[in-house]
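Our example copied in:
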Amino acid sequence: MEKRCPALDPTGQDIHAQADELRAKGSAVQVELPGGVLVWSVNSHAVIKQLLTNPNVTKSARNHWPAFINGEIRPDWELISWVAMDNVSTTFGRDHHRLRRLIGKAFTARRTEEIRPHVVGLTNMLLDALSAVPAGEVVDLKERFAYPLPGMLVADLIGMSEEARVATAKVLDVMLDTTISPEQAQEVLLGWRTAIADLVALKRAEPGADITSDLIAARDEDGSRLSEQELADTIFAILGAGSETTINFFDKAITALLSNPEQLELVKTGQASWDDVIDEVLRLESPIANLPLRYAVEDIDLGDVVIPKGDPILVNYAAIGRDPALHGDTRCTFDLTRTDKEHLSFGYGPHYCLGAGIARMVAKVGLSALFERYPDLTLAVPVEELQPLPTFIMNGHRGLPVRLTAVESKASQAA
């Protein structure tokens, strides 16, 4: 009887439980993705850290994945958008260094401080809008706060209009859904490329003080520095990485604090900081779970298994902070007083997230303002009733129903 590889659950119903199961099977385990594509799933902290700095591991499908190069991967494969891009996240070697230098100018510590007032302004605007919600009424805080704040900021940074941002956000949502059909996958690829092409055309005609205009100037000044596809795909990568990860961070952070009131009290009383919150949430609930894909440039011997040259690798960032070898018996406990909050949620090695500083600043500004404005914030449903996103790529909820203020009791209303 043929032995089949386990399938990664495309609905993302319990990414942590599946990671535990796979971690127990070995350093790397072959799993089946949508479309029958086999990849090596890696779920342990030590192995992931080793692979992320291994020069024989690359993110370039066009150079190191034979199945993609030879046309064995269908152009309508459900995850095609993740491997067809040509940008800083999918290049290696000199091309990666070249693109990283160009983009890095937009994410310096100085730039982070320059945009802080804008982040504060966007945060206050969204919180002001929430003040119109009647006391005790249920509101989806993901839709009204966690979703728009990072999305609006990144759109402003790349010079995208609000109308275009809303349209592109819908494409991103579908791209992250690992239950989509091949037809939808093709629509996603066409959708985001069309949206970015329109943005590039607009900024060529009307350049502004934004990242897109800066990258166009670099590309047009010397076409060898940034190809047209690299330009478009890099802008889209900035939009996706800068918004989706922070959206789901806010979702998980708010959920963790509201479902652990004793931990929230530590923050309110100054016994724990917002930096503690950020790192503990990233450890326990990395916004990115399984990020497609990396590839073995040569055979990689992990001791108990060898990943053959050319095989794809799927790193599970959400599994790292819950590895018992790293955080022991308390690995699944949300504890702001934990001294070791090690995680790799911003990556590690050559592909460490360029926007980590901005992401931390946005997280701190957003969370502190939210809980200062609405100290009585509560979940409107039990935490176990929150529905996971239909994906194994991201780690978040479909919605986050809350009450901004406590519901008055019948006794107080009668009085």
Observations:
- The first strand starts at residue 29 and ends at 32.
